[in-house]
Design brief:
466 residues, mainly alpha, antibiotic resistance, transmembrane transporter activity, Multidrug efflux MFS transporter, MFS_dom, membrane
């Protein structure tokens, strides 16, 4: 039986695109900043006289703060309104950026990165929920397909931007570059982004859930990071404590009479469960690959950060092309078809990286990254559209927070797992770097196959027009 298709899409006008552009500036700052500092680790280590292990917490602290902030974003947007919450998040992010530029030691920089991460963690989820609320169900798919390309481009643009800044200026500009972008976003949002009223259902903040979920995720990621560094006791304590807190949160979410921070029951309701799995694995694949490849290019091939960024650029071009494709087809093609096709392209684009031991030429790597970029663009927007078009407007902030949390957690957990695998393969391969990286990419391929199995449970058609 042939798959049913949706009726002609609602028109996305210039005003809505302008709002989308403004809100995506916040997402751009937050996601690029997660990777822009990676190329400056050596510079920061020399500046503050810290070891690489110590200065690595500049990146890890930001990531943990993002993971901690995402779950609360839904409640804040529902309680105070989407635009107000988004503007506050931009303000916190800019405050953290300015403080980071003024840091006088590695410890102070790590603390200020936490402040920056708390603001950055709320921006993508709050912006997407606000945009979906303004667009309405019939236009959500097409407008989300435009803005969802930004998180895919950010891991590619971050190293390029960071390398360019350090080539012409000092390290504080890794953070100061956010200030003009954020200021422009706030001014434009106050003028052009309409106010969306808070949810009419005023729910109390789930304090117990917040104490269990956000710290539990952060501790789990910390434990996995310690595994990658070979520190057994902190790793065991972190993983055990993190998993215990997440189990306790799940039990609390199922039993509480109040609205939980993230409702565990959401994941048992189609299509949310399958959509969540797809985004979780997408995050692991995207951020995991962006962790492995720059490291391989610089350690295995001896490239500079700038050269590694250039070699990664085809993935960004592929993501942009895929976004255009999705924008034109998201309201015409069954969502499951788009997502499964996207995962298939990622699988095809990942296979060459399992053969890094044979040192494939740059043209093969560029082609594989382009294919992966197209595939990644075909997953995020359709998955979010599936959920956003089937949920009541007042529930959008919490649903958006849950989806972004899964994508972030997938990225952080996937990166941590792949770091452990890579360290193991480097030891097993007697420091044969290329083959060790190739072995690790078989795990990335496994993530993709797992996601493909889950994606087959996505619906064949869009939600009917209300």
């Amino acid at each position: 039986m042939s798959e049913k298709v949706a009726p002609p899409p609602a028109k996305v006008d210039a005003e809505l695109l302008r709002i989308a552009f403004i809100l995506v500036l916040g997402t751009f700052m937050a996601t690029v900043d997660a990777t822009i500092v990676s190329v400056g680790i050596d510079t920061l280590s020399a500046e503050f006289g810290a070891s690489v292990t110590e200065i690595q917490w500049v990146s890890t602290a930001y990531l943990l703060a993002v993971v901690a902030a995402v779950p609360a974003s839904g409640w804040l947007a529902g309680r105070f309104g989407g635009r107000r919450t988004w503007l506050a998040a931009v303000g916190v992010f800019l405050l953290g950026s300015a403080l980071c530029a003024l840091a006088w030691s590695a410890t102070s920089l790590i603390v200020f990165r936490v402040i920056q991460g708390l603001g950055g963690g709320m921006l993508p989820a709050t912006g997407q929920a606000l945009l979906a609320r303004i667009a309405g169900r019939e236009r959500t798919g097409r407008v989300i397909s435009v803005v969802s390309v930004v998180p895919l481009l950010s891991p590619v643009l971050g190293p390029l931007v960071g390398g360019s800044i350090l080539g012409v200026s000092s390290w504080p500009w890794l953070f100061l570059v956010n200030l003009p972008i954020g200021a422009a976003a706030m001014l434009l949002a106050r003028r052009y982004v309409p106010e969306v009223p808070p949810s009419p259902r005023r729910t109390a903040f789930d304090l117990r859930g917040a104490v269990l979920l956000s710290p539990g995720l952060a501790v789990l990621v910390y434990g996995l990071t310690e595994v990658a560094h070979g520190r057994t006791l902190p790793a065991a304590l972190g993983v055990t404590a993190g998993l215990a807190m997440l189990v306790a949160f799940t039990v609390h979410g199922l039993r509480t009479s109040r609205t939980p921070l993230v409702d565990p029951r959401l994941f048992t309701r189609p299509p949310f469960g399958a959509a969540a799995l797809a985004l979780l694995v997408l995050g692991a694949s995207v951020f995991g690959t962006m962790f492995l490849l720059p490291l391989y290019f610089q350690t295995g091939r001896g490239l500079s950060a700038w050269e590694a960024g250039l070699l990664l650029a085809p993935q960004g071009l592929g993501a942009a092309a895929g976004s255009v494709l999705v924008n034109r087809t998201i309201d015409k093609v069954a969502p499951r078809t788009l997502v499964v096709s996207g995962i298939a392209l990622i699988i095809v684009g990942t296979v060459p990286f399992t053969q890094l031991g044979h040192e494939p030429p740059d043209i093969v790597i560029a082609a594989a990254l382009t294919v992966r970029g197209v595939g990644m663009a075909m997953i995020g927007a359709p998955v979010m559209n599936i959920v956003y078009s089937r949920i009541e407007p007042e529930h959008l902030p919490r649903a958006s927070g849950a989806l972004n949390l899964l994508n972030t957690v997938g990225g952080s957990l996937g990166t941590a797992v792949l770091a452990v695998v890579l360290q193991n393969r480097l030891s097993a391969r007697d420091a044969d770097v290329s083959w060790a990286f190739g072995d690790t990419f078989w795990w990335v391929l496994g993530f993709c196959l797992f996601a493909a199995a889950g994606a087959t449970r996505l619906p064949r058609t869009r939600a009917r027009k209300p």
